[in-house]
Amino acid sequence: LFRSQVPATDCYRGDGEDHGTEDATISGATFVAVDDGLHGMEGQGVSVSSAAPRLTARGVRVVGCTFERCVRGAWAEFNQPANPGLDIVFERNTVVAAECHGLGLVGVQGGVARGNRVLDTGRMIPGTPDTAASEVVGIVVSGSPRTPGRDGVVEDNEILERRPGAD
After folding, report:
1. How far apart are CA 142 and CA 113, in angstroms?
2. Distance between terminal CA atoms of the chain?
């Protein structure tokens, strides 16, 4: 189900030297039922992050993708002090029935969430098995504990809860 226009390398080199990601585009891809079994902590269709102190991601675009029944649709999170993600764009994506959040830009500077549709999302609270969420968690835009987010744009998104009996 995964179709993409991503370059042949995905920036992962196994045990090789750590390096960042720049100017990657994922477009027109479909992700279905991505879940790591850790009760909503991981399982993104697309994950953009860095654990290395000097490395980050910049210029990553996720455009026109569909995420169905994933823990999260697309998620960018940066927690290294003074090392934010830069210019991460989530645009015209559709997220349906995500277990936790639809999309997230955490610790990102210059992030964009534009024209996305997030439907029937937020069934559980991350890290708490069998605990239902009381509200839909469509799009998260925030700083992280050690990395501020700023200069973000969130516009023209639709967050819709269609399930019967939902608040």
Report:
1. 12
2. 32
Q: Do you know the residue count of the chain?
A: 167
Where the chain has pLDDT below 70, the residues are 1-20, 36-42, 51, 123-136, 163-167
List 153's β-bridge partners, or say none: 112
The model's pTM is 0.80
Q: How many CB atoms are located within 10 Å of the residue 155 CB?
A: 8
User: For the segment 6-24, what is each residue's pLDDT rounded down to a tens digit?
Assistant: 444 444 445 555 566 888 9
What is 57-126 written as a DSSP string? EES-EEES-EEES-SEEEEEEE-STT--EES-EEES-EEES-SSEEEEEESEES-EEES-EEES---B-T
| Farthest CA pair distance, the chain | 50
Distances (CA, A) of 106 to 131, 141, 161: 23, 6, 23
Residue written as tokens 């934010």? 84
> What pLDDT is stored for residue 66 in this prediction?
96
